Amino acid sequence: MNDFETRLAVYYDELKWLYTELYGQTPYFQQLIDSARQFSAARKPALAALDRAREADPEWYRKSDMLGMMMYTEQFAGKLAGIEQRIPYLKELNIRYLHLMPLLKMPLEQNDGGYAVSDFRQVDDRLGTMEDLSHLADVCREQEMSICLDFIVNHTSDEHEWAIRAKKGEPAYQDRYMCYDTYDIPAQFEKTVPQVFPNTAPGNFIFCREMGKYVLSSFNPYQWDMNYKNPVVFNEMAANLLYLANVGIEIFRIDAVPYIWKELGTSCRNLPQVHTIMRMLRIIAKVVCPAVVFKGEVVMAPREVAPYFGPVDKPECDILYNVTTMVCVWNSLATRDVTLLKWQMDTMDALPPEFTFVNYVRCHDDIGWGLEEKSVEYLGFDPLEHKKFLYHFYNGEYPGSFARGALYNYDPVSQDARSCGTCASLCGIEKAIDEKDDSALALSIRRHLMIHAYIASLSGIPVIYSGDELAQLNDNHYTDDPVRAVDSRFIHRGKLDWKRAEERHDRSTVQGLVFSELQHIIRLRSENGVFHAGAHECTLDSGDRSVLAFRRVGNGQTLTAVYNFCESRKHVHPILDGRCRDLFSGREYDGSAFEIDAYQALWLLKTE
To answer: 217-254 burial, b for 16+ CB within 10 Å, e for fewer?
Structure first.
């Protein structure tokens, strides 16, 4: 019995039960199995060997040396071929997985940054070819670096072959979307389904004149939601995933997971069938390409995120984004109060240790201020007023703000808005440089480094957004492009400044100081097993609301991490478990109370 048949025997009964639960008794199940068998047979030897190695080492992505970087190919290196030339740069930071933002074929202009896919098996020709992607994956694998790619499961572009054939009137392809002859059913959906972009893309349906039908398009008019009630859709998408896995993709960022199942009378979010679909995709991957892991994008309320890991014995996603912690970090910098961040950590630390999160301070997207309202109220703030404070603070409009950012998707009716900007600009580096304020610049750099040290010390996988390693500033040139000008997220999607990068080893420059300090943070993390994702973590009472402290215990080490989220020196209560040494400075601490400088990070390793 070969590897495929052995793995299939383990999961066959569960997979068939789940598939039948959704689709009933149907020949499409056997078609799914046959397709999976073919992809397994086509898996090249190097990937088959990787499958076996990772089956023997399932914790490979949870180790202390795991570090990711996310980037747009065109902004980082122009084309896929250019990334290969920059691998030595990435190795300087010990990057272990490279998240390439959407690069599959997409419409020329209206493509939502690549999230409107026109062909799941073709690279956009502006970035290269599928052969280029496969070659890059091979080269990266030789350097012990995994390629991560977005897999958009909820929708296609309206230029996808399915949509084109649907527009031509082919019923089989119209059935792959949610199409309606009249507005009666769409009107019922609109009563209960929230709008994703109420300001820029109001409503959940568009009218397609070519076929004379209304089409569900939750995100943008040119992104048509797929109909997963049709087993053909599931089978085709499973095949697309396996195709990309055979190209060499090792980590899939599963985009917009909560949206993929629709039912009248519901919000069409987080429905039980979503978990069935994710579990089936996970099983298929484990049978055909067990080296692959799933990273789920679940931008929902905190209580709605963890279920996407699935039960420990029947997992769905291997990794999830730690969205709320990211938001709480920026809240803490603005308020100089870590209470919400500490509560968020307590929530995360109560989850099973098998659950693995991606920790980050910035990404390609906006910062949505979706803090838990009850927690905000407990602190004595009105949730809406606090949200307005935050987005005005990071827009630079609030008195005393150090930030330079931009509003995103402002809704004058609800007064809701999100925030955009690079990490460096939101931390105050841009403002300090413009105003030639050396003392403010020093504090801003400390903010930038402190929050990166924080995410590097959390349980999970730290990910750096390309450019943050150089403290890259906002790029306002997007406003010169009529297509991009309406989307302020492009303010932090600028091209990497390689001239600045050439000075990354000169500590007299901002970029040199930030790059070298991040290298130091990364090296210390990789050298100490206490940062393994499975280590035990718990928060501590520092005695000051501006100071966050927590302890990690694992792999024979005990480490107390302490962070000062304000510009004043602070006094910290005795919280150390014996004598400790700060990994950053080498300074010894005897276990008594101590002082921590403005925006300082301490990694205090127990020495006795």
So the answer is: bbbbebbbbbbbebbbbbbbbbbbbbbbbbbbbbbbbb
- Contact present, 295 and 428 (Cβ < 8 Å): no
Beta strands in 459-556 (DSSP E): 461-465, 536-540, 547-554
Nearest in space to 66 (alpha carbons), one of 584, 517, 463, 455: 463
Q: How far apart are CA 519 and CA 523, in angstroms?
A: 6
Pairing, β 356-359 against β 319-321? parallel
Q: How far apart are CA 160 and CA 155, in angstroms?
A: 10
Q: Cβ(235)–Cβ(184) under 8 Å?
A: no
d(CA 490, CA 519) in angstroms, rounded, equals 27
Question: Which residues, in sequence order, are CB contacts of 353 under 8 Å at separation 6+?
Answer: 459, 533, 534, 536
Phi, psi dihedral angles at 542 (to 5 degrees): -80, -20
Query: Residue 506 CB: number of other CB atoms within 10 A?
Result: 13
Residue position matching structure tokens 């089956």: 55
Question: What's the Cα-to-Cα distance from 476 to each of 104, 459, 492, rounded to whole Å?
Answer: 26, 35, 9
**Residue 270: which of 314, 305, 296 has the closest Cα?**
305
What share of the chain has pLDDT > 90, as a percent? Answer: 90
- Interaxial angle between packed helices 3-23 and 28-41, expressed in degrees from 0 to 180 and rounded to the nearest 10: 150
> Across residues 220-244, what is the average pLDDT?
98
Is the separation of the CB atoms in 73 and 127 below 8 Å?
yes
Tell me the DSSP string of 218-244: SS-TTEEEB-TTSHHHHHHHHHHHHHH
CA dist., res. 457 & res. 453, Å (int): 6
Cβ-based neighbours of 311, under 8 Å, separated by 6 or more = none
Q: Smallest Cα–Cα separation from 71: which of 112, 100, 106, 111? A: 100
Exposed/middle/buried for residue 418 (C-beta within 10 Å: 0-12, 13-18, 19+)? buried
Give me the count of residues in the chain.
608
Coil, strand or helix at 84: helix
Neighbours of 440 (CB within 10 A): 17
CB 75 within 8 A of CB 103: no
Q: Which residue has the tokens 């202390």?
A: 64
Q: Are 317 and 309 in contact (CB under 8 A)?
A: yes
What pLDDT is stored for residue 303 in this prediction? 73
Cβ within 8 Å of residue 501, ≥6 positions away: 89, 470, 511
DSSP lists the bridge partners of residue 214 as 180, 207
Beta bridge partners of 148: 99, 251
C-alpha to C-alpha distances, 332 to 131, 270, 342, 415, nearest whole angstrom: 45, 29, 10, 22
* Catalytic residue numbers, as ranges: 255, 297
CA gap 22, 233 in Å, rounded: 12
∠ CA 566-569-572, nearest 5°, is 95
Q: What DSSP string describes 51-62?
A: HHHHHH-TTGGG
Asked if the model's pLDDT at residue 205 lies above 80, the reply is: yes
Q: Tell me the C-alpha distance between 473 and 469, whole Å.
A: 11
Distance, in Å, from the CA atom of 276 to the CA atom of 249, rounded to the nearest integer, reads 23
> Among 469, 450, 417, which Cα is nearest to 338's?
450
Separation between Cα atoms, residue 151 and residue 240, nearest integer Å? 9
pLDDT band at 61 (very low <50, low <70, confident <90, very high): very high
In this model, does residue 338 exceed pLDDT 80?
Answer: yes
Residue 414 has pLDDT above 90, yes or no: no
